[in-house]
Design brief:
alpha+beta
Length: 216
């Protein structure tokens, strides 16, 4: 089998880009001998199965709606916890027992007795036409094991509320930790409603409303 025939077979199996083809053409002669003998086929098949499995796991993360979950939890809540827990404790759900800001954009929260670490790394860049962009990587870890990594971009298109949007999944290890954050979201919603009812029934607020609107 010629080198061109080998390339054709590899192209069919893993759909290489033009840059990948250039890499193939530059491979050492000894490696091409292995490819002709078929000893390289196993690794090609292995890489195909890896990509297939990664696709399944990304789809699982989408089914669990993790992008939407962590966009809401981190960018609208957890990022503010270091300040809230000191000055507005009622805004931090009771199942979060401690919050530590380790460094800029690194926040550790203790949730259901587990210490989760969030790290957010931002990257600013400009396109050739001068348009500015802000991208970032949000990582979640537990006991030095990365559980989740999400790609984010700052969305300037939101007219009245520009904010971060999560658009991709970089890493995902499924486990019981997901339930902790689903529970956190539920507690945020429940405690928000409880706080709103308390504020609505506050005697001073009710008395002020009665004065302001002449209600006896």
């Amino acid at each position: 089998m010629s080198i061109r025939e080998v390339i054709s077979e590899i192209w069919k199996e893993i759909r290489l880009s033009k840059s990948d083809l250039q890499t193939l053409l530059s491979l050492p002669r000894a490696l091409w001998d292995d490819i002709r003998r078929g000893s390289y086929k196993t690794s090609i098949e292995g890489s195909s199965s890896i990509y297939e499995e990664v696709g399944k796991r990304k789809q699982r993360a989408e089914t669990l709606k993790l992008r939407a979950l962590f966009e809401e939890l981190y960018f609208h809540n957890i990022i503010y916890y270091p300040r809230w827990i000191k000055h507005s404790r009622s805004y931090v759900p009771s199942i979060v027992t401690s919050v530590i800001e380790l460094e800029k954009e690194a926040i550790q929260i203790e949730l259901n007795g587990k210490k989760y670490l969030f790290c957010f790394k931002e990257n600013k860049f400009s396109t050739p036409d001068g348009e500015a962009h802000r991208h970032g990587l949000l990582e979640l870890s537990l006991s030095n094991e990365r559980l989740l990594a999400l790609n984010a971009a700052f969305d300037y298109e939101r007219e009245y509320d520009p904010d971060w949007s999560i658009f991709g999944i970089e890493a995902f290890i499924e486990g019981d930790w997901i339930r902790d954050f689903q529970e956190l979201k539920h507690r945020i919603e429940v405690e928000y409603e409880e706080r709103k009812r308390r504020e609505q029934n506050d005697p001073q607020k009710l008395a002020s409303l009665k004065r302001n609107f002449g209600i006896r």
